[in-house]
Amino acid sequence: MTDSVFMNHHALDCxxxxxxxxxxxxxxxxxxxxxxxxxxxxxxxxxxxxxxYIPHQIRSDHALSHLLGKDAAERLSEYYGGxxxxxxxxxxxxxxxxxxxxxxxxxxxxxxxKMAREFRTSRKTIRFVLLRYEE
Length: 135
Prior knowledge:
elongated, single chain, mainly alpha, 2 domains, two-stranded antiparallel sheet
């Protein structure tokens, strides 16, 4: 891995408490429990969509230590050391954030057409999101 992969990781400005972790896929929940929610978000936003080899031991000068912090990188190594793992993409988090904002707009009384324009999606997608969370 080159350091250029990590150049924009400080731009990640996501609060892990804004996500409903219980409805995320099991592999994301498991990894978040292993390394911490903020570290999971960072991995997804910076390295999502890649297979990544996790060494058995991660030194403090390793790129993952710089990205996640030494403690989270060590936990990652404890759970996945010696394995290649697939890092989930950030799309699941982005989609959940969008859905949350759609529900807030609906609660405010925004029309489906207005929400479709605001979120740059179809009215069908807006209805689908509203139906999914109606349950």
